[in-house]
Amino acid sequence: MKKIAIIGxxxxxxxxxxxxxxxxxxxxxxxxALESKAVLGTQVSFGEDEDIDVHxxxxxxxxxxxxxVFAGTEEISKKYVGKAIAKGAKVIxxxxxxxxDADVPMIVSGVNDxxxxxxxxxxxxxxxxxxxxxxxxxxxxxxxxxxxRLIISTYTSTSFCGKEGMDELFAQTRKIFMNESLVDNQTVxxxxxxxxxxxxxxxxxxxxTKYEWSINAEVKKVMGHDIKVHANCAIIPAFVGNxxxxxxxxxxxxxxxxxxxLMKQTQDVIIFDKKVKGGYVTMNDxxxxxxxxxxxxRQDISIDNGFSFWCVADNLRFGIAGNAYKIVRNLSx
Length: 333
Prior knowledge:
By secondary structure, this protein is an alpha/beta fold. The protein is 29% helix and 24% strand. The strands form 3 sheets. Strands 3-4-2-1-5-6-7 form a 7-stranded mixed beta sheet, sandwiched between helices. Strands 11-8-12-15-14-13 form a 6-stranded mixed beta sheet. Strands 9-10 form a two-stranded antiparallel ribbon.
């Protein structure tokens, strides 16, 4: 079995990757967990019953590692990816470090897998969880009808900002129920996140945020052709998950019944769309799940060749970690 290194093993994505590897039949001898400046004796969970040591990335050689998954920061990827490549490892980068590199393909498993083994430098990158969640249900629709334009409205949980974001939501919620002041308890988000919605994900770049800009750019890079994209992104007071309303305009006349059939044929996409009260899927319903759930699929009569849908996923399980794990399996063949 291939030898796998997970860099950033203690953060949310790294932990989920280790869980995937344990569930997928990998043994502790096949997996190395790495963190920069890791303290001797540190361990991280590997599945439900085992722990593995976390090794110091700064001292690690990468000799014998077949696949290195970088689940840490851009700075870590910039510093260590070259060392992994020099030792013959294939690299999956989750940090966005290589986004602008034309010879580093961006992969959504199930959408453009053919580009994995064509990566010239031995590096592939993965997009945000939101982009993977949106593009997987649309893969077969783009093949048949050609997608011309996407209007994307996302509702992102605080896990987007890591443990710190989730902790801030918890602390603020608790203080409100205890009738305590929220002064000095607003460090991660620009506004109160508890019982609120914040229309800012990332720093502003002109009129849009970095996350809105990146969704636009990542969609184009994954799909491999020019698609007009307008994204509106908000953080909502949820701990885990991501939801999105997506309006799609195609190049050809499209029938929503055929769209539903094409989505049903796509692996890891589940249609649950009943036109009754509660006949849809929400973020709470999919925590711990590894699929994308699509509801509220309907024709968009405001434009020609249009339809819209609602989709939800566990952004930690399905999103970056799930996508990276599927690429690991592909590279392990």
